[in-house]
Amino acid sequence: MNISPRLRAPAGFAVAAALLFLAAPLVLSDFRLGLLAKYLCWAIVALGIGLAWGRGGMLTLGQGLFFGLGGYAMAMHLKLADAGDGKLPDFMTLYGSGTELPWWWEPFRSPVFALAMVLVVPMAVAAVIGLAVFRRRVRGAYFAILSQALCAAFAIWLVGQQTSTGGTNGLTDIQGFFGYDLGDPKNQRMVYFIIAAVLLALMIGVRQLYVSRYGELLVAVRDSEERVRFLGYDPALVKLGAYVLAAGMAGIAGALFVPAVGIMSPALIGVVPSIEFLIGAAIGGRASLPGVVLGAVAVAWARSSLSEQFPSGWTYVQGLIFIVAVAFLPGGLASLKKYVVRRPASVETPAQPARKPAAEEVPA
Amino acid sequence: MSTLSLRDLSVAFDGTPVLNGVDLDVEPGDLRFLIGPNGAGKTTLVDAVTGLAPATGRARFGAHDLLGKSVHRIARLGIGRTFQTATVFEELTVAQNLDIAAGARRSVGTLLRRRTRLPESVSEALETTGLADVAERKAGELAHGQKQWLEIGMLLVQDVQLMLLDEPVAGMSHDERQATGELLRRIGAERTLVVIEHDMDFVRSFARSVTVLHAGQVLSEGTVEQVQADPQVQEVYLGRTTTASQEA
């Protein structure tokens, strides 16, 4: 590891790009590449969780809400496009009593409107929730429970609206993606490449945030909100920024998930998926950029490959890993790196190295 | 420069009065020490002035009314404080801590960019507080005294006109106390300082004026000599002896 710190990040992105754009399409079958596309969508959600939770300290246990808002915005448009001009999506003619499209579906015929809503709706909802919550200084477990409740409420509402949202089934059997037939493996590859490109672009954007002054300020708010307030900042606004961006990323992820998998349903966005979004970030290392992405992909991969063999056992394994990670490795696997990198760093400051770990491990 | 002026300032927690009609004026350039037994309301007074504790009466800094304003707005008026336990951002470096303190008025565009070099005020504060050598070290790794100095440094880059310091030398060695006192003198020339302190040796060495609080009220005010000579102070605070140093 003789790479200078300045080049480490560009080198990391180059490796990530090579893996995503060259290695994965060459090595993986179409089926596995399709699965990877799905995992990368979850990695995009995890990227936002890393920002809001890892750096901002907001335990975002309800990202399914934003994932779902973005996903449904995209799925509604694709269903309308599948149906064709002036026609209704299939499920509405099956279950719906009326023959009329609900008014709030109508604008989603426009691809531009739908794409805009993928970002606007989750971010606007997050802004409203965030303003109300952070101004009142709701934090920690209360914030997490509130997030979960909103997410559960959204899923329950969707289930109840059988005729306009497809209910429990959700919006299924999506055939086309802006004119491309999703049944064609070539187009599925294209969707994979779009998702990989979006993930990479967002990673670069989030890294820029991490090294910016805002990134430092966010960590400061996470570690000592009161102190930041006495410096003349409004911590509610600082947190709001990260929360809204995380919601936007979850919305994008939900929208990309639809062409990758061909479905959007309440089961994909409820309480359990929302917790699963978080597990990858927790295990990989919530404050580390590669940590959340690799963690999310690894946990998703482990889930599908292990649950193929032990369908009932995986849930327990997943829970166990989560508990072990949180209890013994709060910084996730990414924090292990520190112990490796620490050693050469300690040479520069001979007076200090032994002190900090000792102070942490030995209770006074 | 502005004067801190409190009139009939009262704070009650759940109906129990903690501050009871405090009148206090601190002129610009003063180095005022706030002393008094535990529970006298010293920290509560600072909390009330900085917007942390809801208070009644009047608190003005220059032309601004402070009561009812939110904490971060009061901070932007040029009022800064420290806490009994040093509160710094332990995961960030000393320079980053100071840079954040300097930036409450930064635009979104500036915030989104990387810090390319230290602002001048940060470099100055590093020199003034003697922390230049540890600028790139994480604040969590600093010694106790250095953390307190970092907090004072953060107030300096914040460019506060009124500094409220809550027991800045508690737990410091003798040399550190001396250095802190001299630091306070240096920076106090252009600002107004209010320092809560228990250590009477420290008060005697560095106070320009002293206010004694007792049971939520001002008991006495003046120079160290005047306050020590006040029979009321001797009775309730110094425990009937004239050697103030026994109270610590």
UniProtKB/TrEMBL annotation, chain B:
The keyword Protein biosynthesis does not apply. InterPro entries: ABC_AA/LPS_Transport, ABC_transporter-like_ATP-bd, ABC_transptr_urea_ATP-bd_UrtD, BCA_ABC_TP_C, P-loop_NTPase. Keywords: ATP-binding, Nucleotide-binding, Transport. The keyword Ligase does not apply. GO terms for cellular component: plasma membrane. Residues 4-240 form the ABC transporter domain. It comes from the Bacteria. NCBIfam families: urea_trans_UrtD (TIGR03411). This is Urea ABC transporter ATP-binding protein UrtD. It comes from Streptomyces coryli. The gene is urtD.
